[in-house]
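Margin note from the TA: students keep mixing up input and output lines. Inputs are the sequences; the output is the structure of the whole complex. Example:
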Amino acid sequence: MSGQYIAFFILSLLTISGAIFMISFNRVIHMVVALAFTFLSIAGLFILLEAEFVGLTQIMVYSGGVSVLMLFGIMLTQHSKVERSEQKPALRIFTFAGILAFFVAVFYGIQKTPWSQEAVDYSTQNNVKEIGVQLYNNYVIPFELVSVLLLVALIGGIIMAKKEADDE
Amino acid sequence: MAALYANNYLIVAIFLFLGILLPVGALTFGRLLRPHNPTTVKRETYESGLEPFGSSWVQFNVKYYIFAIMFVIFDVETIFLYPWAVAYDQLGLFALVEMLIFIALLVIGLIYAWKKKVLEWN
């Protein structure tokens, strides 16, 4: 139990510090590296919760795919060092209020969600197999909608980037 | 089973720890051993005998971005294939048809990319 506690402590520390470094760095590429640290630590937290499939998906899609996508996106643009101008205090207060409202909404939502059943002990079962059975028996329409979403993302990305490539 | 899992992750933790420790230790040890005498010529970037110019962070071609988008999309597709393959013996024909529709839609995207000559590199 204490080993789990230590692992949770280290992983949450890495998650939060990655996020904080991401905000405070000046160069965009350093920001992406910090964000990749956050993604990896979140994957560790998922594995700690015995959700191995979600954890590995996090590593594959976020740490692998999305980080590379962000890096290429940054490489396309002008990314000289950002000169940070001092913000107006009114804007700061407004930003803080927005963040606070978001936090309260998420926290309240989590607290008020009625969890209908007791948590299932998945550590004795085959995690991936359970996900497969649930997904392909009970959630067929959402699954097919995901493929439509992926198709739209692919075609939309190609149209936008193609226009850019032809202009060059 | 849970105890077995915990032990497995202990091995992963040891592996991670060693993976971080080894390069850090080797570089620190090397720093202690090597002589420290930098000159301006030594500090220059070595570029096959050519004089290096500009920054290494140049603006990339937009085609890299298309490849990154396609990589993410087919990455997600693979992830959906994986639980389907693991649970295949409990799912039956309907799931096979579902997966064929899923793959067919993404193949349409791939054919579109092919027709638009996005996959070509010139």
